[in-house]
Specification:
This protein is mainly β and 670 residues long. It has six domains: 1-31; 32-133, Immunoglobulin-like (Sandwich), CATH 2.60.40.1940; 140-226, Immunoglobulin-like, CATH 2.60.40; 305-447, Sandwich (Immunoglobulin-like), CATH 2.60.40.3620; 451-524, no CATH class; 528-670, no CATH class. The protein is built from one helix and 54 strands. Strands 9, 10, 13, 14, 15 and 16 form a six-stranded antiparallel β-sheet that branches. The chain has a five-stranded mixed β-sheet with strand order 2-8-7-4-5, with no helix packed on it. It is elongated, with a radius of gyration of 37 Å.
């Protein structure tokens, strides 16, 4: 229909041109004649976000037929809307122009430009000045994410304010008029008119707070700068795009629970919902997938994920087979070489032009099916090759190789080398270094998660904030052959150790004389922690020479000595739960067992087996008993007739979750 109309109008215009042409046979050489004139009255004011409708009188005093009328609306000389219509004859024509509602544009003067053309192509132009005003709302509301509505009043031109009550430091909502005609929210990237997404707010002091919104600048509050920035997710509002700052702490709340997989390449878990951001500063998108309990993060926006630039900045992505996936190989987003943002893996840019991804065998990486590739975007396009590419990687790993198209593997694909085996539970970090150029990239693969180094000084307590699940390496006076307290740290076999206890401040001491690294919790002053009445703090063992770490034969085995290096600290493996592991013949004697649990590294609070404010009940076991008599009340002895065999390992766990007077001691043979 549009094509037919175009043909009809073209024929009419051509006929008119031929009729007035100086040369009837050559309508290309038309003499422009006439006085086309367009006049409009009563269009002195326009309101942003509405239509400007008016009547235009079109005529040509020379009697030449008219052709078209073009009406334009100009802000500062720029056309913001226009319309063109056929004007076959003199008369009045109705025109409507949309007056855009634009951010930052104040009240001001615009131009309505009327351009009337006759059939000789002569144009008459009439510019009409129009005052453009921003609207003022008497029914604007703040609407919280849970549907609460708060009326707002205009406290100064275009600035609206209302009082909202919240118990949270982070909350979400948007702004809209009561009739729903005007809505201000996010489109996933920024605040827009008509945006349906909720905006993120944060306040340092919850309670009755003031919410504001400026309909000219789109600024809103509160957005208090608080020490731990909140990130609030919900089922309906599960995507956040924001500027993230390296080293800053964030509180992740809402439907993201403690058992979710929060990408550890971007975040370090500080406990209690608090995470430290590890990647470089920039814009990132966080998506909470409740169907497989995964908090994904990647650079860029939801609609425009970051891509790799030729200087090595930007982003690197992994696409691969079902042998690689976050949060797990068994999650429903493991789709085998799919390129949707939900299925690809983003590396974290931990330093400028240096990227890292960490994978645990059996969880995010298959032990046998290894086949993936690094790309410059979350899909097909830029890809890293092992040979002959503009984007190249070299790798010296003994375990993983890069295909070059000639070694039996696709060019650039990562594979498991012949004879190499992966063990479930082992963790590998894949780091790409592009500091020498994208054509000289280096892929560095290390077994074990990236470790934080702690330098130790012989016999000096180095106080550090340790975090559960984080990997550490010890330098300074520490040596590779030192025994590291295995109740506090898991030995990864590569010179790194993963912390096993609750987050907190701990003292770490190296003893070079007997090759031992001791660990124990400390208080705010850096002193050895003591047991508190609520069950938090620390529990210690003092005993005869039947018990000692690192070994019974070590020189710190002093028998009931209360010096810090001679007492044994239980590991706080969970809130108010403590554990110590002892192997017969190494840390525990097969005979002469006699030790006791205390609330400090010395005399003072002690656990009793008979009465007492600090009491322990012991589980049924064949080997140990807790003395429940006036003499040696609370001491741990062997059961009558019990025999311990060298090499047997026992875990002693104290649970104080029901109070210090109702403690439970569980002893299990491994």
């Amino acid at each position: 229909m549009q094509r037919q109309l175009f043909n009809i109008l073209s024929s009419m215009f051509l006929s008119a041109l031929l009729a007035v042409s100086c040369n009837d046979d050559d309508y290309k050489n038309i003499t422009k004649n006439g006085e086309p004139t367009a006049n409009a009255e009563g269009i002195t004011t326009a309101v942003m976000g509405s239509q400007l409708s008016f009547s235009v009188n079109c005529s040509d005093n020379s009697g030449i037929e008219l052709s078209t009328l073009k009406a334009e609306l100009l802000f500062s000389g720029e056309v913001v809307d226009q319309t063109i219509q056929r004007t076959a004859e003199n008369g009045n024509y109705q025109v409507s122009l949309n007056v855009p509602f634009l951010r930052y544009i104040p009240d001001g003067e615009a131009i309505v430009r009327l351009s009337l053309t006759n059939v000789t192509t002569k144009v008459g132009v009439n510019d009409i000045k129009v005052n453009v005003e921003r609207p003022h709302f008497d029914n604007l509301q703040f609407v919280s994410a849970d549907g609460n509505k708060v009326a707002m009043s205009e406290v100064s031109p275009h600035l609206y304010s209302g009082k909202f009550t919240t118990s949270e430091t982070a909350f979400k909502g948007h702004f809209e008029t009561a009739d729903g005609e005007w809505i201000f929210g996010t489109d996933g990237t920024e605040i827009t008119l008509g945006g349906s997404g909720n905006l993120a707010f944060q306040c340092e002091n919850p309670g009755e707070i003031v919410v504001t919104f400026n309909t000219c600048t789109y600024s809103y509050s509160p957005n208090d700068e608080i020490a731990i920035a909140p990130l609030l997710f919900s089922e309906d509002d599960n995507i956040i795009t924001r500027q993230m700052v390296k080293g800053r702490q964030y509180f992740i709340s809402g439907n993201v629970a403690n058992d979710w997989f929060v990408d550890g390449d971007f975040f370090e878990n500080d406990g209690d919902g608090v995470y430290t951001f590890l990647a470089e500063n920039g814009t990132y998108t966080l998506t909470a997938y409740s169907n497989y309990k995964y908090l994904q993060i990647y650079p860029g926006t939801h609609d425009a994920p970051s891509t790799l630039q030729k200087d090595g900045t930007g982003a690197i992505w992994v696409i691969g087979g079902t042998g690689i996936n976050k949060p797990s190989l068994t999650a429903s987003n493991n789709q085998d070489w799919w390129t949707n943002i939900e299925y690809v893996q983003s590396l974290a840019q931990i330093e400028p032009k240096v990227y890292r991804i960490t994978l645990t065998v059996g969880e995010q990486l298959s032990a046998t099916s290894v086949n993936f590739k690094f790309f410059g975007q979350a899909g097909w396009g830029i890809e890293f090759k092992g040979l002959g590419g503009e984007y190249n990687l070299s790798c010296e790993s003994e375990t993983f190789g890069i295909g070059d198209g000639n070694n039996g593997h696709d060019n650039g694909n990562i594979f498991l080398k012949d004879g190499a085996t992966l063990t479930e539970g082992d963790t590998y970090t894949f780091t790409i270094d592009l500091t020498e150029g994208v054509d000289k990239g280096k892929l560095i693969v290390k077994k074990g998660a990236a470790a934080k180094n702690i330098d130790l000084v012989d016999k000096e307590a180095v106080v550090s904030t340790l975090k559960k699940g984080t990997t550490y390496a010890f330098g300074g006076d520490a040596t590779n052959d030192m025994i590291v307290d295995h109740d506090f740290f898991k030995d990864n076999g590569d010179g790194t150790y993963t912390f096993l206890c609750i987050n907190g401040d701990y003292a770490i001491k190296a003893y070079t004389s007997y090759n031992y690294i001791q660990v124990y919790p400390v208080d705010k002053e850096g002193k050895a922690a003591t047991l508190q009445k609520d069950g938090t703090g620390a529990i210690w063992i003092i005993g005869s020479d039947c018990i000692n770490k690192p070994l019974l034969t070590s020189s710190n085995n002093q028998g009931w000595n209360t010096d810090i290096q001679s007492t044994q600290c239980l590991a706080p493996i969970s809130d108010k739960i403590y554990r110590i592991t002892l192997t017969v013949g190494e840390q525990l004697s097969a005979t002469g067992v006699n030790f006791k649990f205390f609330g400090q590294s010395g005399w003072g609070i002690e656990f009793n087996g008979l009465g007492g404010d600090y009491h322990l009940d012991i589980n049924d076991n064949d080997d140990f008993r807790i003395n429940a008599a006036e003499s040696d009340n609370g001491n741990i002895f062997l059961n009558d007739g019990a025999t311990l065999n060298e090499g047997d390992t026992f875990t002693f766990t104290i649970d104080l979750t029901e109070g210090v007077a109702n403690g439970k001691l569980t002893i299990e043979k491994q």
